[in-house]
Write the structure tokens for this entry.
Amino acid sequence: MNTPEQIQGLETNLTQSIQHYQGLLQFLQEMDHDLGTADPVALQNFNLTLNELQEHAEHLDRNISTQINTQSLNSETTQDLIEKRALLVSEVLLLNQRITAKASGVKSLLAHEMGKLRIGQTALSGYRQPQNNRGRITNSTT
């Protein structure tokens, strides 16, 4: 049997997790919108922020998992919070997959463009003027 404090603690952690996943979802939506046009510094900042958000989500998930494993889930409120959280997690997962696919496409496009630039640079290096001796000072007497 769970004490009211245990149930309240679990519901508080679930509520915090839901709020965190809502923030993560909003961040991923912004990232999805800006991915194709962001500069490298912005992309690095996106990556750092995303890592921090994911680490915090892992921490919250571990706490919830521990509580769920040690308690029975009789409360209707707890069940509702778990379902809401599960829906948010699935939305985050789907959006994350879409961003990953989009980022992979951008990466492939950039790799292709860099390859074309290398080929062009190589081609242009073949058009160098031959070195000649014009303009040199000579000290020879003939």
Summary: Residues 4-124 form one domain. The chain has a mean pLDDT of 84.
